[in-house]
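Hi Y.,

Following your request, here is the sequence exactly as I used it, all 141 residues.
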Amino acid sequence: MTAVNRLIDEHRHCDDLFAATEAAVQAGRVGEAKEAFAGFRTQMEAHFRLEEERLFPAFEQATGIHGGPTQVMRSEHADMRALMDEMEASLSGTGLATFPGLAETLLILMQQHNMKEENILYPMCQAHVPDMGALLAGEPA
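Below is the corresponding structure, written out as tokens. Let me know if you'd prefer a different format.
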């Protein structure tokens, strides 16, 4: 599996966890929704950290580009984190009725974000970051 495929697989896994959360909310199974959302959020944060702490700095170092696509991705990560905070509050009882609208907003943001990463940023990283697979695996350079 290539490094890019690994990252794309992580996107799909997060999508699946998100769908499980939405299904539980729609069925009125709040406890299951909370558990599914916790798993989704954990995976999203792990993916964000991998990009923000390993991939993006390596890309910036290799290309000298510091304010471009990686900055946009970081900003979108922050937007998604804020939405996830609101969704978590909704599941914790501050207004479950707000969850579907927040989920729809997050879904659209994730879809747009993933398209940019998968079609633009990841290929750029593959072209410029030496041994991207080892980098993502946490192996020393």
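Residues 3-136 form a domain with the Four Helix Bundle (Hemerythrin (Met), subunit A) fold (CATH 1.20.120.520).

Thanks again,
Q.
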